[in-house]
Amino acid sequence: MMKTKHVVDLADLSHEELIEIIHLANSIKEHPEDYSDACRGKILATLFYEPSTRTQMSFKTAMLRLGGSIIGFDNPQNSSVSKGESLKDTITVVGGYADIIAIRHPLEGTAAAAAMYSASPVINAGDGGHLHPTQTLTDVVTLYNEMGRLENLTIGLCGDLKNGRTVHSLIKTMSTFKGNRFVLISTAELTVPQYIKDIINSSECGYVEIPSLADAMPLLDVLYMTRIQRERFASEEEYRRQNGVFVLDKDKLKGAKKSMRILHPLPRVDEIDVEVDYDDRAKYFIQTVYGMYGRMALIMKMLESGDRTPSPRIMPTHHYRCCNPKCITASEKYLPAVFREAGGDMLLCRYCDGRTLI
Ligand code: NCD
User: Fold this and answer.
1) 106, 154, 161, 238: least surrounded by Cβ within 10 Å?
2) 8 A C-beta contact, residue 226 and residue 161
3) pLDDT for 54 beyond 90
4) Ligand 1 center–CA 351 separation, angstroms
5) Does the CB atom of residue 227 touch ligand 1 within 6 A?
6) Hey, what domains does the chain have and what are their CATH numbers?
7) What is the pTM (predicted TM-score) of this model?
8) Which atom of ligand 1 is nearest to 227's Cα?
């Protein structure tokens, strides 16, 4: 049985639990018929406050393939959210209907907030630019199968490292495995947030920042390409200045190892040329299939305990509010201010991990 009830961050799982889920995903992939009734009678709610193709469909397919059922919305305008219902109320109600909830929201820290009010287990399916643990699960199932290991890898991450939540989640998880090295390939404006660099620095892994994809290429065991996150830019002009800087094409691949693997959380815009799809190193489509099996395994494990007790009330730890304007606490004002002390004058928001100076 898993120790955590909710999965807001993949770090909520121990290494042993993560490896167990990868093995279960592989077993489901090998013998899907053995699992087709594993969640019979159970209901998954997908609450998607932000557009999604893969993640939402992959969650739904995962539950259907386990014999369970699905409810939910993919456009909050069709739900009571459009009448002004708070996250707390929506989650309290849905947590009473469904056995498990997958939530995606444009604001950072939403999944942590949802977990406070849901009687059923909550899975973070993406909270703004913050985290995306089930994409990381997808990525680690892919790496485990395609590379044969999760350790001693040189992993290049290229594109929008600032706003790409999949990048943040992946670095967080892979920095807990020994011997990994990160090569951060981005413009100066789109480098990873400081808190992610701090996580690498406090791990046994290291990173280098290289502004050129061609220069980085020969070093890499894995290249994780990402799109520029248009919807998270203040203006179209700012987006246009960043888009198209890094494009992977056949020519650039000439400098790569034969054994390198190319991953991408998708959707792709124009950062990978279509020609690359036909290269044996391209694994981004098979990655989506691994993701579905990973989510099947995760749902199965999370439903094992059957825990449906409402979470205890959480009280504020400080009188300050988080100063990240994209934090869920900025719009849902009833949420208790909960911080971790980070030394000196620094507080870290329990919802979005943002820093607040006092
Ligand atoms: C990613 C996301 O939503 O963060 N997509 C996904 O879940 N597969 C990546 C992206 O939108 O760029």
Assistant:
1) 238
2) yes
3) no
4) 20
5) yes
6) 10-128+290-303 (3.40.50.1370), 133-281 (3.40.50.1370), 328-357 (no CATH)
7) 0.95
8) 12
